[in-house]
Amino acid sequence: MNCNIKTATFVWCLVLLGHIDPVVSTIRDCLTNIKLPKLFEYDDFDECRTWNPSFRYCVVQAVIQPDNTSPIWQNISVISANRRNFPHDQLERGLCLQRCLNQLAVSHQISVGLVESNLITEHEQNAYFGQCLNLELETSYNLHATTTVMNCITEDDFRISLGAAEIVFIGMVVLIILLIAIATARDLRGDLKNQYDAAIQSFSISRNIRKLLDCEKTDGNLAYLDGFRVIFTIIILVVHSSLPMIRMPLKNVEDFEAQTNSAIFPVINSLNTHMITFFFVLGGMVLSVGFLNHIDRSKGFTLRYQWKKLLNRLARLLPAYAFIIFYQATVFKWTKKTPVAFKFVDYCSEHWWSNLLMINNVVHLSEPCLQYGWYLGADFQLFLIGLGIMTSIWRFPALKKICIGAMLIIAFAVPGIVIYLEKLDATMSFDMRHALNQLREYKEFLRYYTPFYTNAGTYFFGMIAGMVYHHVSKNSISVASRYTKQAFQYVFVLLIVLSAFLVILPWIKVEKPSIFLSIYGSALKAVWGITHATVFLMYAFKTDSVQVAFLEHPILRVLAKLSYSIYIVQYSIIHMVYSNLSVPIRYDMFNTVLITSANILITFCCAILLHLAVEVPFATILKKVIDGKIRITNFSIKDQKLS
Hints:
With about 650 residues, the chain is mainly alpha-helical. The protein has helices spanning about 5-20, 20-35, 45-50, 70-80, 95-105, 120-140, 165-190, 195-200, 205-215, 225-240, 255-260, 265-275, 275-300, 305-330, 350-355, 375-395, 400-420, 430-435, 445-450, 450-470, 475-500, 515-540, 545-550, 555-580, 590-625; strands spanning about 40, 55-65, 90-95, 145-155. The chain contains 25 helices and 4 strands. Strands 1-3-2-4 form a 4-stranded mixed beta sheet. The protein is globular and about 90 Å long.
């Protein structure tokens, strides 16, 4: 390892290990000396439903009223003031109405005759829940709270009602299954003769499995990028699988808070925040290399190529995306009839169109449909911009240096300008209140993380890396390999230094808007993009490398074909799994690994089905339509040999 990298890593470790967080000590002392109300307590939902045919089970939030004379309230105030902690003045209770009424009857606050829960109005129900909660708080802690019923579930919610949308979705699934069965049977018999078989055969499961397992490598396709794509897709899946734990009712919130208050947590949060830059850099590099290779092969360029490239991209993305959105808007609600399901609500039935138009990264961010889909919108917008830039550079070669200079200026300046004008932090810091609300009101997420213009720089770094690769691959690769390796070492040192500074950044009080925060935030984002770009180039120039051989392994090439389906299906799977957990749960390594493993396994299985049954068949048919091999008007097929 280079001496600079060793030194920077050593300094980083010293900073992390030497940092003492007084907040953690304060929390532990408070919890040790005075017993605080539990943040989460839930009655047994299955028991409530079993013993009461007309049951009502509600999740109630209790906001403790300030009482400066109470030592308990004083400690609650101290702990809640730290934004990395849960708001300890907001309690959450899962209450069975029948149990609550029995409790009030025993304490003689209501008559025994009112215990029949099915005779109680919603207004009375809310009042009784408030009485139950305050009975607990006043008896045990001498505190009082105002209550709000957040969600209720009754036996009526378990009755499946079919609307027009649900019927259409089920009919579509049945039709796809029939097409798969017919196509597979004909394919196995070799019975593909008439004009309709060219489309029907696209649904053959045996044919699509062969396509999936086909790992034939073509020259100059940067196959090692598939390995990187798989690795980062799995990392994203693991991170997304663990994030909803924040919104779950926990038995041991103090253990979770100890982690969020650790010295290294800001660095970990930064890694999570900037991980998406990998995919933007990758997209930019693939675009520029593909464009330049097409120019070399075709000895020219037409707008027809640009139009077909756009249509082929939509043909690959939209069918599977639309299927998942349709599922999310219709039958997905049947998979999560539980008290905590309301924590994972989305708005696909209302805002599906913004996803299909690829503008969901700028509209409906506070009421998203498939929240992770914001990346697809931003990436598509940057694809259009990148395609326009590459076209301009080809059409007017004299503009090449000007375009690259403008791209670099945008990369370094735009994030900083946004941070300054919007009065934002340098990067997305962790705030428990925003995390509990899925970042839907977090200004840094809405104004800085998701817009295409703040991510354009990392995409442009990928495009520039692609141009460098295309130029160098025709010349001396060995010289380029040496320079790229040196560049990576310097960039990596800079990345470590900037990331280590995040440890002390939360304790630096700076008035916003801040030029310092703007420069630092822009530099951090840019260095992440440059790091990914130099890594891609470094591996592109490694001709004989065990690492490259691993990244080009056939298994990773197969998984790379599934990466898109994995990304779009994960949201539904993760929320379904968390919604059906028994709560409250204990936050520990065992449960985290167990839940994450379940999410990964189910996501992979569903992604395979989605890829084989929807993504590949519809993409194949639409590509034939785009290429003119199938005409929609009369469904005729041009003369060709069917294989």
